[in-house]
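step 4 of 6: structure.
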Amino acid sequence: MKIMKIHIKNGRLIDPKNKIDAQQDVYISARRISAIGAAPQGFVAELVIDATGMIVMPGLVDIAARLREPGYEYRATLESEMGAAIAGGVTSLACPPDTDPPLDEPGLVEMLKYRARSLNQARVFPIGALTYGLKGAELTEMIELTEAGCKAFSQADATLTDTRVMMRAMQYAATFGYRVWLRPQDSFLAKNGVAHDGEVASRLGLPPIPVIAETIALNTALQLARETGVLLHICRISSAAGVEMVRAAKREGLNVTCDVSMNHIHLTEMDIGYFDANCHLSPPLRSLRDKAGLRAGLMDGTIDAICSNHSPVDDDAKQLPFGEAEAGATGLELLLPLVLKWAEQEKVALTDALSRITIHPAQLLGVKMGHLSIGAHADLCVYDPKAIWKVEPAALKSQGKNTPFNGYEMQGKVRYTLLDGQLVYGA
Amino acid sequence: MNNPQLNKHGELQHLLTTEGLPVRIMRDILDKASTFLDGEQGDIRKVPLLQGKSVFNVFFENSTRTRTTFEIAAKKLSADVVNLNIGQSSTSKGETLLDTVDNLCAMHADMFVVRHSTSGAAHLIAQHVAPEIHVINAGDGRHAHPTQALLDMYTIRHYKKEFHNLRVAIVGDVLHSRVARSQIHALTTLGVPEVRVVAPKTLLPSHVEKLGVQVYHDMEQGLEDVDVVMMLRLQNERMQGALLPSAQEYFKYYGLTQERLAVAKSDAIVMHPGPMNRGVEIDSSVADGSHSVILPQVTFGIAVRMAVMSILAGAK
């Protein structure tokens, strides 16, 4: 693809990092943002994008998107999911290490990065496995993995039951300043569970996952972070009680950050209805009170980022009785409209709302994306804030067609996605 | 959200759960069941209501009693009955649940009676089949067992006539029991003012009180002045999951003995969905005693299942 000089004109520019929300043109040359507002001297655009009535923002940064490669190509491939990413305006994404084999070897990480780069659709930042095979026993070669491109280390949804291994993993990571990302869930309390331990699970006879499965594991993680000084990131917080613990830890000055999935700020256990397996998610959808707690956590900054938790599942694994169906839902193409919906419902300013899917997650990853400063990589998303569309599985680019939002009306549609100064998506 | 067991005319399309089942339909089923029973001991006549129809008993989980009573009920209605004990075998061969169902549909089933070990299986099948096919849930995971609950309601009405003046206690492993969940919804729908559950905390689901029941952990208090005692079966595997220390200790505190039953009303009836564990949840002297209506329950069960099938067959 040719490197072009691009002029994006007449759009409303929103760049949370630089606190810009104004009618401003954007000028791109040599893959970088070369000017905002007035054209640089002698700038001759080879491509002009008319963004009248549209919002121009940094490309989205999604810190949890499973691409299913390697190992689960029957569910999704890099091609299909990268296509979904740019259709959703996502230009950077972090993928959890729970592939098959898990991302515990530098070679695997390099291969994934290479495959992703050759597709030239979105930047892929792998999260390395914290322990070999995600088995929770032996540490991975974190230095090697970091050199191969890993941005943090995680157990994904695999639990680490041995507290001593967790402490040592944190100590080792802290030695080199690496980030540890944990999804807190006590494996014993969550054993065989498929739904939030609440009214709905009790009524439907679904094996439960109690809130304390999250808070007990969270307590362990926070105490170990305090002890080891590791940069701890809490993934997919799901309960009001969990949010309160992170809030207290932040207040205390602990170096901890936190994200939430877009599903959990919109849905609750009630959405399971009559066993809708699309609502079988991990962590489980919790109560109305928990949803309110998550939203409050976003409002006061306890929760730093919103992710799609994109987890494509094939139909055969979903069309099963609720408890047997695999947890997960597609999400890359819904992240922007669902964040906009949340912002509108909670009267959150767009700059604040969009920071949760741009600069904040970029900072959590430790990458330079997520903003439109002069000289920054020209990763942009241009969306039409008035466009209303209906979620129809067949129309989704992702190979995973299952989502609890099937049939929902969304407002806000991505029109153009630019990656590294190149137009990679236009609708 | 549409109630998946009713058609657009509000008639019964499938029987999946007693939750949200309109009281008029529940009463219709009980009334219809009584027409199949002759006299006090309940001889059941054979009628041609399902002549030419095929009823498939599809059991993904083993059961002798429920499958047999469904089979008898279908045959008494003159239906052709096919029994399939699928167990775990088809899934181990790689066939999905819905593949199995599609194959059976291609064999021209009119009605499926389904039992499955996972909650929600009957709902999934009901959503999948063509509109002319009816699904009866014969037990899904911990969720529901509506025909058992309806036969229990029939039994209660037979002995107690009314529901609005009763105090009912459900005793035992409510946590894992689809029977208990279906009983609770049926009892509250039919207007029973006081439904109690009696169990140790390890055998109760969280928020059980939201189902409209009063929670008791003490057997004597829970049984005091009740009209109906509904016992639940205690599975042996509960002892392994750290839910209970031993069957002996359970029986000591929660087993139904003559002595404990004495605090209930003098004309209280004792029910059990079977199969019973004598000496674990119920003492033989109670199971075989004058308050026990456990065997009539079985007979009524056939009539109730006939009623459900004939009402479904008549639904448009």
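step 5 of 6: annotate
 - Chain B has two domains: 23-144+298-313, 146-293.
 - The interface with chain A takes residues 1, 4, 19, 96-98, 116, 118-121, 123-124, 140-144, 178, 181, 205-208, 210-211 of chain B (CB under 8 Å).
step 6 of 6: archive
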